[in-house]
Amino acid sequence: MAEPVEKSTLSQQRVMSAWVFLAPMLAVLAVVAVYPLVKTIYFGFTDASIDFPGQAQWVGFRNYLEYLDYGGGEGEYYGLLADPDWWRAVWNTLRFTFFSVLFETIFGMIIALVLNTQFFGRSLVRAAVLIPWAIPTIVSAKMWAWMMHDQFGILNDMLMKLHIISEPVAWTADPDTAMLAVLIVDIWKTTPFMALLILAGLQMVPKDMYEAAKLDGIHPVRVFRKVTLPLIMPAVLVAIVFRALDALRVFDIVYVLTPNNANTATMSVFARENLFDFDRFAYGSAASTLLFLIIALLTIGFIRATRMNLGGDR
Amino acid sequence: MTVPAPIKRLAFYALVLLILAQALFPFYYAILTSLENGQALFEVNYLPKALTFANYEHMLTDGVFGHQIFNSVFVATVVVIFSLFLGVTAAFALSRIRFRGRGMLLFTILSVSMFPQIAVLSGLFELIRAFGLFNSLWSLVFSYMIFTLPFTVWVLTTFMRDMPIEIEEAAIMDGASSFTIIRRIFLPLMWPAMVTTGLLAFIHAWNEFLFALTFLSTDSQRTVPVAIAMISGLSEFEVPWGNIMAASVIVTVPLIALVLVFQRKIVSGLTAGAVKG
C-alpha cells in the first residue's frame, strides 16, 4: 500500500474501522448473492438434478447448445440456443419490457405534469395515485384476474355497456389478449412509481424559468418541449432504465395472472418452470445464467452511458 | 389561444377525475367483491348491494390464514431489523470514511440490487437445503437480504453523505470512537431515514413472491402473497373470489395506511434509491 507517510494514525484507524463496519454486510452479501450466483452459473454447465444437486457432473455447454450427430450427414441441435420455447420467452420478455416501460413513461409523465400544477385537492390526488403502487403485486394480479374474468368480470361488462366489444373476452386465456392483460396490470401498478420519479425531477426545475416564459408569452407546449423536457430528461432516463431492468426479470404478475401460458411466459418464468416443475434443474440454471448475463450487460452499459457518480463525491 | 379558459379548466379536472378513477377503482371493486356472497358474487355490481362480512369471517377463523399473516409479519420484521443494523454501520463507513476501493464497493452493492432474483434461485435453493432451512421462515429472512441489504445500504449512504461534517469532527476531537459516533451522533439524526428505508424494506419483504413460493412447501409456513396466489376452489369453476378478495383487502389495507402516512418520506426514499446515485 503506497499510502502517504504523513497520513495520521487517526485516519488509519478510521480506515481500519471502515472495514470492520463493512465486514458483516459484505459477508452476508457474499453468502446470499455471490455464492448462489456462482453456483447457479456452475449448475448451468452440469447435469444437476433437483434432488441431488451435489452429484452434478460437468457437461460443458450441452445445456446451451449441442449438436447431436446421427451419422450420415443427419443431426440436430439441442440446448437453450436451439430451443424455440426459450426464444419465445425472450421475445415475450422484450415485448413486455418495451410496451410496459413505454406506456408507464407516457402515463407517468401525464400524471406528474398534472400533479405539478396547483389545483384544489392536489395532495389528496397525489396520495390516491400512490395506492396501486402500495398494493402487493400478487394482490393486484388477483384483483385484475377477477375484473378480467371471462363470465363475471366487470371489465367485459363495462366494455360491452360502452359498446366497445360485442361479446365477453377471455382476457387472460385468449392468446391474442393474454399479453395485453399482463401489460394492463403491470402498467396500472407501476405507473405511480414512474410518475413520482418524474414529479421529483419536475420539482427541481426552477420556477422563475416558467415565469420568464409566461412573461414572454411563449406557448406552454413550447415551454414544455424547450425548457421542461431537457431539464428533466436525466431523471426520466434513469427512471426508464431502472424500470426496464425491473421489467426484464418480471415473474409474479405473469405467473399468477396467466399461468402455463406460452404467449406470456417470460425468461424468469421459463427458468423457474424448468428448475422446479419440469425436473430440468441444470437447464433452468443455464436459462437463469443467460438472463443474468443479459441484465448485467445492460446494467453496465447504462451505468457507462449515464456516467453515474459512484465515488460518493458530489 | 382559441380554447376558452373555463373549458380548459373543465378538461383539466376531467383528467384529474380520470386519474383518480383508474387508481382507485380496482381496489374499490376488490372491497366490494369481498363484501358479497353467494349469488351476488356472480352478477356484476357497481355499487354495494347486501353487504356481508362472511368472507372475512371465513378467512380469519379458518386458522391457516391468521398463521400466514403472522409468518409475513415475522419475516418482514426480522428482515428489516437485520438490514437496518447491517446497513447503518456499512453506510457510515461508505459515506464518512475515505478509503481505497470505496467507489468499486458502492458499484458492486448497486449491481447486487439489480440481480434478477432468478439468477440466484438454484444456488440459493441448494444452500438453503444444505443449511436445513427448507420450509423454514428463516430461509426467507436469509434470502431476502439479497434485495433489502443493498437497498438499505445505498439509501442510508446517500442520506448520511448529506449530513454536515462539523458535528462529526467535533466528536473526533473529543476522542469519540467510530462506534460512539454512530450511536450518539448519527442514530438520533438518522431516524427519519431509517424509518423510510425500514418501511420500504418491510413492504418489499411483505410482497416478495418468488423465494417464498420456492423455499416454503407447506400451507402453514407460507407467507400471504403465496397464500393468496394459492387459494383455490374444488374445481376451476369454483374459485372462491369472495375469499380471495377478502384476503387481499386484509393484507393490503395496512400497507396502504403505511404508505399514505409516510407518503413524503417514501417518495424521498424512492428517489434517493433510484434517481440520485
Automatic annotation (TrEMBL), chain A:
Gene3D superfamilies: MetI-like. It is found in: Cell membrane. Residues 90-304 form the ABC transmembrane type-1 domain. One of its GO terms (biological process) is transmembrane transport. The keyword Chloroplast does not apply. The keyword Transport applies. InterPro entries: MetI-like, MetI-like_sf. It is a multi-pass membrane protein. Coiled coil: none annotated. Keywords: Cell membrane, Membrane, Transmembrane, Transmembrane helix, Transport. Signal peptide: none annotated. GO terms for cellular component: plasma membrane. The chain crosses the membrane at residues 16-38, 96-115, 127-147, 178-202, 223-245, 281-303. It comes from the Bacteria. Belongs to the binding-protein-dependent transport system permease family. This is Sugar ABC transporter permease. It comes from Martelella lutilitoris.
TrEMBL record, chain B:
Gene3D superfamilies: MetI-like (1.10.3720.10). One of its GO terms (biological process) is transmembrane transport. Its main location: membrane. CDD domains: TM_PBP2 (cd06261). It is a multi-pass membrane protein. Belongs to the binding-protein-dependent transport system permease family. This is Carbohydrate ABC transporter permease.
